[in-house]
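[User] Once you have settled down, look closely at the record that follows, and write a paragraph about the fold.
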Amino acid sequence: MSAALETLIARSLSTVEEKTWAPDREVTLGELRIVDMIHEGKPTCRLCGQIVNQTDQFGLCSKTTDAHKVARGVVVPARKAGRR
């Protein structure tokens, strides 16, 4: 690197102030209120309770777990035992 570039980088690093982070309960609660307003009126999965944009015809989210498959009426085969 050129000497001028190194000088600029060193100067810019020395002017950056490190701010210590401290939790602010009011800010956090304000953000959570915004999230709640966004999710207001959206459907929830009747099996797992997740808030989703839309549910399928069974009232479920798009997860493909065995429990969700069973709730949709899909036959889930028993799992085979592993090899030793």
